[in-house]
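Narrative progress, year one. The postdoctoral researcher (J.K.) led the effort to move from monomer predictions toward full complexes, under supervision of the PI. The following entry was the first complex the group processed end to end, covering 228 residues in total.
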Amino acid sequence: MSFSSIVILTGAGISAESGVDTFRDKGGIWSKVDLQDVATPQGFKRDPERVHAFYNDRRAGLKTVRPNAAHRALARLEAEFIGSVLVVTQNIDNLHERAGTKHLLHMHGELTKVFCTKCGTHRDEHGDLTTFDYCSQCGATGTLRPDIVWFGEMPYHMDEIHEALHRCDLFIAIGTSGSVYPAAGFVEEAHAIGAHTVELNLEPTEHDSAFDEVRRGRATELVPAYVE
Ligand code: BV8
């Protein structure tokens, strides 16, 4: 089979072998903290310091992890493939860009970005965020929040993602449990327009049957083998 337009959806599983925690595996993030408390606007309103601490800890973790062979294989694919490659990641880490991927959409936002809820100004953040920080644009204090899409919030780049899904001929999902929408519905969209759909994942997921092809294993083995 030859392809001309590839959309790749990645989830926490692609970063697992870099040492980044996943969410729903045994001992995953959501087994240690209630997502309602740290990944919803209501949780942030209730206890902003707790939410800042949750993301400050994960942001600090970025300094201790590196892209793995799966991230690097996707960057090579983009550099060498004649057609178009778009990586849509649910992850908020920066491992795809650090591996060299350029055409990348963070649909759930990024750990290294924050924005002011008063004036909407976005800026980079590589350190800790607290309720005492002020917005350098409007001067307000305590209005900065992580630039991350929480549950109940609209993911970023949805128009661009749907457009890419409607013209792709290959859709690959890597390291995602398919538990969260709208990302979990992308395979059906790609399938509906006749794209070949592939799942590369360590464990079975509730969406296995939606894929034309399922390969089971670790991303650092499956992804280089698949893209080579
Ligand atoms: C929205 C940022 C509406 C936070 C996250 C139907 C349609 C639309 C919405 C909904 C719907 N039904 C329900 C909803 C609401 C909700 C939802 O989906 N809830 C779920 C729980 C049912 N969705 C939303 O709220 C979304 N927003 O719909 O807005 C709207 C409309 C108009 C106007 C306004 C609003 C927003 C969802 C985004 C939430 N934010 N992330 C943060 O990161 O702190 S989502 C969260 O789950 C994670 O961040 C992650 O991005 C995402 C998915 O998780 P995975 O990446 O898949 O990770 P997981 O641990 O689950 O799985 C890892 C997999 O890897 C496993 O399968 C494992 O086997 C595998 N693996 C492990 N190791 C390896 C491996 N594979 C290979 N190699 C390995 N080594």
